[in-house]
Design brief:
By secondary structure, this protein is α/β, with parallel strands linked by helices. Among the domains are: 141 residues, Leucine Dehydrogenase, chain A, domain 1 (Rossmann fold), CATH 3.40.50.10860; 128 residues, 3-Layer(aba) Sandwich (Rossmann fold), CATH 3.40.50. It has 15 helices and 13 strands. The two termini are 22 Å apart. Bound molecules: nicotinamide-adenine-dinucleotide. Nicotinamide-adenine-dinucleotide (NAD) binds next to strand 8. Nicotinamide-adenine-dinucleotide binds next to strand 8.
């Protein structure tokens, strides 16, 4: 099922039937059984997927997820989000995603590298032709992207590589940089508040969440709650962020970190200005949406709010900046990396961050304008903007 409520969208903008037909289902999907002999008595098998949801605007772009429970449906859902995200950010990429259903925490570094190499061998045609361009997502990192590059030696076949291997300085932090920029825009333009007067709660302390915490802390905001899969920490006066980073670096997670412990459910119900769910899908549901006390939500993760929860949050007048805008910093930086790989240009970190912030500011202003003009939620406003861009693209391509 599509993430997009086309019936709702058609109330606000014209979407020809042919466009809807092309945008509501994936162009192409690959499923394979990744199998690898890890030891004389151990055969690893993992269901694996690549989804090309729509490539009208360019190569299918989207991360490689490694997680035990990941399914084709989840990969498809994430690929569809990329179609709307890249259109909203006006980047010449389509939307895709890939996934390997395996728990990376159960693999040694050596085994993970072997799995990634097998993944590359299976889809080497697609990667080699640049029709699908992966990047890190949950369970994968820069090193994995370096392994993909190493198998093909095509600099633009993958983004999110370490800077020494053709990666982009600042790509690692780009998604979190973008989410925190959106939080700041929201505070400034909607709440008329400086970061130093604001409180935030961040769920997830991985590649995205930890950087959101760091950027917001550096901006002077009070980060009062953080969490990872092991649970959370809370301090109404603001957590000691450098100490948390130090702890997570030494211990690999926030488990056992000193301070007042809270559950993930308590974090989601924190009384804060902005709640940033930056962990995984389906965290704010019909069950816990009535408990949310944040004034605003900024979705760092993909799909953290279910459709039912969204209705409740709208009724309760808690605006949510959707994932397709809030976490687009990663794909914006990926575009810069991809372009740099083709041209050989050199980019520094500050240029990466300013490109991310500039693109997101434009999309944010557009969201505010459309939400006001058409009297709709932030989520619908972002979808209207992306839909209009996608319809125009499909016409340019003579696909409709
Ligand atoms: P990650 O694997 O680096 O980190 C995930 C974090 O969430 C970890 O701290 C983990 O402990 C925590 N977590 C996992 N399940 C949880 C649960 N049930 N409850 C609470 N915490 C939980 O992943 P990431 O790259 O930071 O991605 C996080 C989200 O952001 C995903 O939805 C991903 O698709 C999205 N995203 C990532 C990027 C990127 O550049 N990495 C870009 C755009 C969107």
């Amino acid at each position: 099922m599509s993430n997009i409520d086309f019936e709702l969208l058609r109330r606000y903008t014209e979407i020809p039937l042919a466009a809807e037909q092309l945008l509501c289902k994936p162009e192409r999907e690959i499923s394979f059984n990744l199998s690898l002999k890890l030891a004389p008595d151990r055969l690893l098998q993992a269901d694996s997927y690549v989804v090309f949801f729509n490539t009208a605007r360019g190569p299918a772009k989207g991360g490689l997820r490694m997680a035990r429970e990941v399914s084709l449906e989840e990969t498809r859902d994430l690929a569809e989000r990329m179609v709307w995200k890249t259109a909203l950010a006006r980047i010449p990429f389509g939307g895709g995603k890939s996934a390997i259903a395996i728990d990376p925490a159960k693999l040694s570094r050596f085994q993970k590298t072997a799995v990634i190499k097998e993944y590359v061998h299976t889809i080497s045609l697609e990667l080699g032709h640049g029709t699908y361009v992966p990047a890190p997502d949950m369970g994968t990192d820069e090193t994995d992207m370096a392994v993909i590059f190493g198998e093909l030696h095509i600099p633009e076949c993958v983004t999110g590589k370490p800077p020494r291997v053709g990666g982009l300085p600042g790509r690692r932090e780009a998604t979190g940089c973008g989410v925190s920029h959106v939080v700041r825009l929201l505070l400034q333009e909607v709440q008329n508040k400086a970061p130093v007067d604001a409180t935030v709660a961040v769920q997830g302390f991985g590649k995205v969440g930890s950087q959101v915490v760091l950027f917001l802390h550096q901006a002077g905001a009070h980060v009062v709650a953080v969490s990872d899969v092991t649970g959370g920490l809370y301090d109404p006066n603001g957590l000691d962020v450098p100490a948390l980073f130090d702890y997570a670096r030494r211990n690999g997670s926030l488990e056992g970190a000193p301070g007042r412990r809270i559950s993930n459910q308590e974090l989601l119900a924190s009384d804060v200005d902005v709640l940033c769910p930056c962990a995984c899908e389906n965290q704010i549901t019909e069950d816990n949406a009535p408990e949310v006390r944040a004034k605003f939500i900024v979705e760092g993760a993909n799909g953290p709010t279910t459709a039912g929860a969204d209705v409740i949050l709208n009724q309760r007048n808690i605006p949510a900046v959707p994932d397709i805008l809030a976490n687009a910093g990663g794909v914006i930086a990926s575009y810069v990396e991809w372009r740099k790989a083709k041209s050989g240009a050199i980019t520094d970190k500050s240029e990466t961050f300013s490109t991310v912030r500039n693109r997101l500011s434009i999309a944010f202003e557009d969201m505010l304008r459309l939400a006001e003009q058409r009297n709709c939620s932030f989520r619908t406003a972002c979808q209207i903007s992306a839909a209009e861009e996608l319809v125009a693209t499909l016409r340019d391509r003579e696909w409709i």
